[in-house]
Amino acid sequence: MPVGGRRSSTDTVELTSPTRDPCFAVIVAVYKDLRSSAVGKMSVVAVKVLSTVNAPYGTALSAEQLASKISDPASAVDFDPSAFSFFSEVDEDLQNSFLDEMHVDPSIAANLAREFSALAGYLLPLARAA
Predict the structure, then answer these.
(1) Which UniProt keywords apply (predicted)?
(2) Structural domain includes residue 1
């Protein structure tokens, strides 16, 4: 694009099909989950967390499924990528908000974060609370 942001008649814009973009597909899945949930609403916290956790792996976990994974000690034993993504890629304040919203015991999540920290070889934010 030329300086100043103006397009000439020879400039082209290439668009990719949204259905081929895995991140777009995850966002659509989260949106559909939001629209079809029993309550009819998904919190901003859940949407942010699920977008961060689901996108890299092309998964479509619900908030409840993720809450189960981040409170299950088997997640570390199984090297669960979604649980690790939550502990390593989601902002610590957002993690705490999600734990509170989903009624996950913070001490259980912190212990699991500590286990993932040992596996990863570096300290994860919630592991400090353990």
Answers:
(1) Plasmid
(2) no
Domain residue limits at 37: 18-129
Total of domains in the chain:
1
DSSP 8-state secondary structure symbol assigned to residue 58: T
**Separation of alpha carbons 90 and 84, rounded Å:** 10
Is 21 in a helix, a strand, or coil? coil
Contact (Cβ atoms closer than 8 angstroms) between residue 23 and residue 55: yes
Whole-prediction pTM: 0.69
pLDDT per residue rounded down to tens, the chain (130 residues): 444 444 444 433 333 445 566 666 666 666 666 555 544 578 999 999 999 999 887 889 999 999 999 999 999 999 999 999 999 999 999 999 999 999 999 999 999 999 999 999 999 999 987 5
